[in-house]
Amino acid sequence: MDDLRIEPGPGCPKGLTVPAGELHEQFSHASGPGGQGVNTSDSRVQLSLDLATTTALTDKQRERALVRLAERLDGTVLTVAAADDRSQLRNRKAARARLGALLRASLAPETVRRATKPTRGSKRRRLAAKKRRSELKAQRRRPGAE
Questions:
Q1: What's the pLDDT at 32?
Q2: Which end of the chain has the least Cβ crowding within 10 Å, N or C?
Q3: Is 70 among the domain residues?
Q4: In a domain? residue 136
């Protein structure tokens, strides 16, 4: 197949191109739909990429990807599998799409939430809701002797 192209986005502003020679594909029998053909065709695809040796990533990107994908890695090798379809070709495309999505997500910079104060309106709404709830509960009480 061709090189794996990843569209530009956060963390990779120029996009990425992973050479086809660095991708390792393995095929095996897939479980699931396919009837008798599932026993004879190798439609399941495992696509692997060694993040430590790939030329597609810069050192900074490599470090970020290795840290963020640590639980998915076997050593430094990222592997995705696709067996959704009867067709090996469609499974190959699905595996490439999954690998690309994982790489893109791992390279995106972390979003840090800035702490803000509640607005005046949100405080007013919160207090009004508490007041309504309090009045509702007060109506449930047993009437006094007064």
A1: 63
A2: C
A3: yes
A4: no
In this structure, which amino acid lies at residue 21?
G
Q: 20 lies in which domain range?
A: 4-107
CA nearest to 57, candidates 22, 96, 17, 95: 17
- Highest average pLDDT, of 27-36, 75-84, 129-138, comes from 129-138
- Write the CA distances from 141 to 77, 127, 128, 131, 132, integer angstroms: 66, 22, 21, 16, 15
Report the CATH number at residue 100: 3.30.160.20
From CA 93, how far away is CA 73, in angstroms rounded?
Answer: 21
Task: With respect to residue 45, please indicate whether it lies within any of the assigned structural domains.
Answer: yes
DSSP, collapsed to helix, strand or coil, labels residue 23 as strand
Tens digits of residue pLDDT in 7-32: 888 878 888 899 989 999 998 876 66
The two tokens of residue 9 are: 């986005």
pLDDT at 134 over 70: yes
Structure tokens at 38: 């599932």
